[in-house]
Amino acid sequence: MDNELFPIVDVNGNIIGSATRRECHSGSMILHPVVHLHIYRKDGSIFLQKRAMSKDIQPGKWDTAVGGHVDLGESVYMALAREAKEELGIEVSNPQFLCSYPFRSSVEYELVNVFSILVGDDFSPQLSPDEISDGRFWTESEIVANIDCDVLTPNFIQEYQRIKHLLIQNAE
Asked: What CA–CA distance (Å, rounded) separates 42 from 6?
């Protein structure tokens, strides 16, 4: 797993090289692409996953419904479909691209490509126990109430504040 190859990109997403997962997560601040998928319902609630305790970054915290790295040779759309299938057992068709932005943590530097899909009340994912320990829909008030409680990942909090108006617009 530490030897899987990721593309190295510039801030516009252009591939300029490659590096291993270990290199990208070593504090090297090598910019590499990831995908995030926000799954929401018309009532504005958003599905979040609780990261498994075995995860190397932010274990046990609530996060974006789907998130993962883009592998070398894979498009962001291919990575999004793969990650949605691996983590939630769902097929994603026609995801809406919301934005991309660079995100820096203490151990990595990612170009986050953000997508969303609207689902019905019958949404029933099959959570991967290797990746996710729990999953459920959260209301905006629940998210806001937990922002300073060390329950949500810092990346999710920043991203939610960046895109929540887009999700509300899309639900209407």
From this structure: 35
